[in-house]
Here is the input.
Amino acid sequence: MIFMCDVSPRDGLQNEARTLSADQKVALIEGLRDSGLPRIEATSFVSPKAIPQLADAEEVMARVSRTSDCELVVLVPNKRGAERALACKPDELNLVMSVSESHNRANLKMTPDESFNALRDVIAFTGGKAKVNVSLSCSFGCPFEGDVSEEAVLTWVSRYAALGVTGVSLCDTTGMAYPSLVRSLTTRVLSQHPNLRVTLHFHNSRGLGLSNVLEGIRAGVTHFDACTGGIGGCPYAPGASGNVCMEDIVHALQCEGLETGINLEKLLLVAKGLPRLLGHGVWGQVAYAGPRKRLFDPTQAKQQ
Amino acid sequence: MIFMCDVSPRDGLQNEARTLSADQKVALIEGLRDSGLPRIEATSFVSPKAIPQLADAEEVMARVSRTSDCELVVLVPNKRGAERALACKPDELNLVMSVSESHNRANLKMTPDESFNALRDVIAFTGGKAKVNVSLSCSFGCPFEGDVSEEAVLTWVSRYAALGVTGVSLCDTTGMAYPSLVRSLTTRVLSQHPNLRVTLHFHNSRGLGLSNVLEGIRAGVTHFDACTGGIGGCPYAPGASGNVCMEDIVHALQCEGLETGINLEKLLLVAKGLPRLLGHGVWGQVAYAGPRKRLFDPTQAKQQ
Here is the structure.
């Protein structure tokens, strides 16, 4: 079983020029949940000044209907965010820092060590009221520094594992991962931390996203983030384009005989609604071509 | 070494609304060749009525300058096409039929057996004046019939191998291939025909193109078709979108430490010229994001 987390309500919408209404966000989250997604990153409790698109995080969390078969994760940058988030009773907090000093400074105005100290305080403050995941940005490379050493990533994973977090995400913030690197790094992380939930979070900036997911699965990873429509990016990461595309991954995994529990037809309906919702086309290919089992009428072929 | 064949001057341009001038086509082919591509499918000797975009096949072949390090392949549908093609002294003829009866009828107005008989006559007519490759459309599925049996594909490969062709291409005409199918079929073909050149030709209609290329390499394939910019399609194959993208593949193979002999920077210049040439955007991601080793200035990050 492969567990997909749809991060489009957070990683996707934070990058959109158009700010959706709370109604639209709640409908998007519930549409994803009704497609069978077991996890959704629903919003972010960052400063509304930094990400005005997600300023209504409390309202969205209060209004979205909750079910036991879908965990709602929320991004939290600091203690203030954790306070706001915990009042909304999410299933999990997703904390974030970058393993690259220059990217962490550009994104969070701190050194990685300062971020670690701050997040350690957030984890202590959370006190078990929600599960905690830590996302490690730039785990497969930094747009300012280039390659990131696997040892550096392993050190950060170990430091957070020692704090008792539920999981870590190895984030390919600007699409610098490639399959042999995915295999090498994730094999080492899984081998050192057999009881830690490891999630891979890829962007498709250089077209390698799906290949990286498939390689992660070969290496033994079972948790992945993706965005329906392949929307998303990072406002502080130049060259970043969309997250890997949820419906294209679900389709590919179906082809490979891997179960996600997701109803592809329902998910495709959500994906096909995105261009109207966002005011622009999105990346997904399967929403356009249809699943591979879709058959056409040869007498209609020339008109297509 | 992985040998890439750029089919954009043929499979790409035959699907464009805009017909390029012979000047533009010659410049495209020479630009690809100067990027280090060892093989280019330069044009098609189909009826100008069927594909008016390539009606100037003779002129293009007469004007393009030839070098010993780049083979020019031309598509040939029948004996009339072979006559026209051989007068232009290409390095190789690429013949084509579909392993799916309904797709062959829709595309070529013949049964597969009728196509085989006609192509056998073309091969005899060629008489060694050029190498011959046979492209087997719908080898990974048919948009009208669905799954295609591996045994059917293996039978067609064997029939052509018995005629002494240099190579066969297993063509994923409408993007229905997926990695485990690629591995299964190509492993069987390679094992039955160790001395036959086997080329994989993928379309990216469902986002699986690059993953399929990487899986083909794992299975032992060394020859692949792709289009710079990911342009292309099939006018008789509904749901088909672009071919796999050459520059994204070359970039991915570089990341993986696999040599193609292609200069990515030069190839990216060709790719970046395509939107102006064709009048629309193209699919390639690396032309937009840059190679993964491209570094950005953190002080400029927010402006990006």
Q: What stands out?
A: The mean pLDDT of chain B is 95. The two ends of chain B are 37 Å apart (CA to CA). The beta strands of chain B are 3-6, 39-44, 71-76, 92-98, 131-137, 167-172, 197-202, 223-226.
